[in-house]
Amino acid sequence: MSASSDIGAIAKAHAKWHWGEIVFWCLALSCAFLFPSRYLIMTDIVRLALFALSLDLILGYAGIVSLGHAAFFGVGAYSAGLLSVHGIVTEPVVALVVAGLAATVVGFVTSFLVIRGVDLTRLMVTLGIALLLEALAERYSNITGGTDGLQGIEMAPILGYFSFDIFGKVGFFYALAVLFVLFLLARRIVHSPFGLSLRAIKNNPLRAAAVGVPVNRRLIAVYTLASFYAGIAGALFTQTTQLASLDVFAFERSADLMLVLVIGGTGYLYGGLIGAVVFKMLQELFQMITPQYWLFWIGLVLVVIVLIGRARLHRWVLFVPNWVIRQFAGSKAAVAVPESDAS
């Protein structure tokens, strides 16, 4: 068997669905029935998970660090809001795609600036882009509504059948369906030859270029794709809250996204999803205990993660499930810690 066949077999094996993934999505869906009074917070978690997924595509797979990812979230949020306010596109799903494409255009244009630098330079460039867009949104307050935000956002029924309700039930199922579809797309991409080339670029861009990988074009492509995902997340925010203000461009939004990926890990897609759940749960818990100092406790959790190590925490959490699996299905079926977090 040739080396290329070996690589293809390995990639195909990694692309197969694990039973743990199926359980994860079943649990996500079951939350709608287990916590019927918590639709709003669950929708917030789903939006954050999609937003984190967009950053993981560039950070976990291409090594592009960004502190201004809220720029595309904001573009998507305002695009969805303006489409609704002016009656340009009233159907939510179509408006969602249009808003995502608007963020994609911004991402493609700015990607040429981002790929020129590395690490600290990229941090400053991405942060500068977000701050610039926030300043423009504030400057043209006659369009964006300024600090008061857009007024008169009303969402039409989804596909003409499902109307948004004040309890957030329709919004939750809508957001979860969008997250699942985009997750499937992202999963297919990262396990494709394109995704493998991104990993090669992240590990060693010079070596990747030497074997013929078009490094810059790959980075532009994944950065543009991540912008689309972030724009969709922003549009979901506007459609499910009927709100779009300058806060969508805030630095804190990008910073929270980094915290989510620190908690959940990068480079295996589920890191952003798990991190979003844990981050929001911790935020809710600490705000109930100490409303004024909840950030202190979040910071303490991050310190513990850094000191103990995410891989060790994963082993502790999965100890009982793995023990049960070994008893009934053999040790080979144990839940594995993601390779990206094993180091």
How much β-strand is present in the residues? under 5%
The biggest beta sheet is recorded as: none
Instruction: Please state the structural category.
Output: mainly alpha
What is the CA-atom radius of gyration, in angstroms? 21 Å
> How many H/I helices?
16
Element pattern in H and E:
HHHHHHHHHHHHHHHH
Helix content: over 70%
Number of strands: 0
Question: Any low-confidence stretches, pLDDT <50, length ≥5?
Answer: none
This entry's quaternary arrangement is single chain
Mean pLDDT: 84
**How far is it from the N-terminal to the C-terminal residue, by CA?**
30 Å
Global shape: globular
InterPro entries: ABC_transp_permease, LivM-like
Keywords: Cell membrane, Membrane, Transmembrane, Transmembrane helix
Protein name: Amino acid/amide ABC transporter membrane protein 2, HAAT family
Subcellular location: Cell membrane
